[in-house]
Design a protein that fits this description.
Length: 464
Amino acid sequence: MKKGEVYEGYIEKVDFPNKGRIRIDGETVIVKNGIPGQKVRFVINKKRKNKAEGRLLEVLEKSELEKREPVCSIFPACGGCMYQTILYEDQLKMKEAQVKELLDDALAAAGQVDEQGNPDYIFEGIQGSPQEFEYRNKMEFSFGDEYKGGPLSLGLHKKGSTYDVLTAKDCKIVHPDMTEILKTVLQYFTELKAPYYHKISHEGYLRHLLLRRAETTGEILVNLVTTSQQKYELESLLQQILALPLEGKIVGILHIVNDSFADVVKSDETRVLYGQDYFYETILGLRFKISPFSFFQTNSLGAEVLYSAARAYIGDTKDMTVFDLYSGTGTIAQILASVAKEVIGVEIVEEAVEAARENAWMNGLDNCRFMAGDVLKVLDKITDKPDFIVLDPPRDGIHPKALPKIIEYGVEQMVYISCKPTSLARDLGVLMENGYRVEKACCVDMFCSTVHVETVVLITRVDK
């Protein structure tokens, strides 16, 4: 087996997040973006002594799991919702099995097994999202073209491509309000023949369309992201967007100027063209003010399921000081505040910290304190000692130098909320090596039709 050779084979299983396993002549090849049971053609793009990776070229035969037709026009070229042809209950079973295998392996490696050698913890399965479609409250659409020199497009990157952008004119994981806004913006700039920003030459005007829509209030924030290289009249676009017959209500339209070379949605300058630069969402009876770049769970109703599961694991925190590390806009902290002595949130994004403080004030909570900074550094400055710790880190998990500081507090219990089970499994290994055990775990599917899933774990100290 050599690099550049083309093979055909069946995907036997898919490991989290999307690593399909194919056996060829006794060797296992990892091929991403497939579904168990598919027969695929692939090319070897990496080959080392004990490891081979392939790039998917074509699906030759469907999987038995694919029991329905695609729901959008750009499947499978768009890599976002690669499981949409699988019934939702089968998606849940697959994700549940993937996470359980990762946790089982982590526990077995740490020696947390019963007399029969089985992982010794309670795995409580997976809970699905209340909505399978139209669940995303935030979407970053990119400007570009579907092929080199093609007409202007606005949507999502083609699977495996850094440059090609597919127009998401019927994306099913966002509310139709977002689709109508996208089509209006695309048509406006197509007629103006406005150029999109080229990542190589760093020239052009149009970069992104960032849309946020609250599930409970229906409030919509429209954010047009461009460079400062050219100027276009935007008043007509404003009037066209405001005239759309939407189910929700547009509360703000912003023009965000971003001259960064990096392909990220950020602001060098934000201009409010209409209304305000925030909107409101409600989670578990609490009201949250959200600005363009505030972190907030992208599935609002799914977040209620996730935070309810976490709250059940946390249990009684009366008279306790709780640390909410990687606290974002303070959602978890405020959910716990009513049943805790004090909650201290730590978050590196200053804008999120300001939002958390404002949200706590708005919800009448005076026992929440939020600190801006890297958890690794802030823990050295906090004089308070926690009775309970909630961990909700970014995808890469907890910084390896921060984990010993967290362990040193010696709290009886912690709850770890993770959006990347592989990072979670790694961090659990360290925690179990240092006197903790995994009591129970569950999954919550916040990202229907995609490869991602959230996991909640209750951890207890056993070695004092």
